Amino acid sequence: MSAEPSRWVAELESNIEKVVLGKPRVVRLCLAALLAGEHILLEDVPGVGKTLVGKALARSVDGRFCRIQFTPDLLPSDIVGSSVFQSKTSEFVFHAGPIFANLVLADEINRAPPRTQSAMLEAMSDRQVSVDGATHKLPEPFMVIATQNPFEYEGTYPLPESQLDRFLFRVSIGYPSREHERQVLRTHREGEPVDTLRAVVESGQVRELQRVVREIEVDGAIQEYLLDMIEATRSCDDLLVGASTRGALSLYRAAQAWALIDGRSFVVPDDVKQLAVPVLGHRVLPSSFAQGDARRERVEQIIERLVDATPTPV
Prior knowledge:
It is built from 12 helices and 13 strands. It is α/β, with parallel strands linked by helices. The protein has 2 domains: 214 residues, P-loop containing nucleotide triphosphate hydrolases (Rossmann fold), CATH 3.40.50; 99 residues, Orthogonal Bundle (Helicase, Ruva Protein, domain 3), CATH 1.10.8. The strands form 5 sheets. A 5-stranded parallel sheet has the order 3-6-9-1-10. A two-stranded parallel ribbon has the order 2-11. A two-stranded antiparallel ribbon has the order 4-5. A hairpin with a 4-residue loop joins strand 4 and strand 5. Helix 2 packs across helix 10. It is globular.
């Protein structure tokens, strides 16, 4: 592996951390999703920096960025676009919607109704949208950075399991430390620091990084280790639904991206171990009923227990 991909990743990480203070793991997970060519769901209470993380990542890439504020009255055409009749030519001309961007920040994604979520699902899974019987390809790279509040239920529509499955990671931001919060107060006196960020990589370089990720070596023993974890979720009595084959592939791809961020051309067992919870946490269902944070915490504890019980390859 040449030195350039590692340098590009380091520049991205450093640039985002200029404004996302004290959250190195969150930054790395966002980078891993971008490098793997997948999407990320940032789930936490309002005001802890979900939108900030999305903006910082998007502004660090020299590509088209669009923020969509999801609301209960948002229509599919508001996202994907629509065909407009041109009287001069007597033809319908497609006008692309905001989804036609390289990085899309879907703010409060769970506020949109099911029809709109269905349009988002096609965009996220197939990298295309269908309007009036015609298919339109989305630009490359394409990434959705979605946010949602797990505690607010009024005026929201829970994301269907099929859509959750399209997110590589589900990540909680968490509250900052007191020192970093003090730093935030100082840096926000004269405006939003994220607005001053400059792009450090081009969209073509991101596509090259995504190609490099797929060439990261994964030893046979590590593949078996990963599959042992997936099998453990399916045979666990505390889980009603285990991880799917897509979950296994997502964990595989995430581990490759994590290795590249660490400057390696091969995956180690710790890559898989570190990423099991953010990759699998939203893809399995507990056997006992729970909602919101209680459900999420229970699922993550179960996965951590299964990971600890899985023999690590030497």
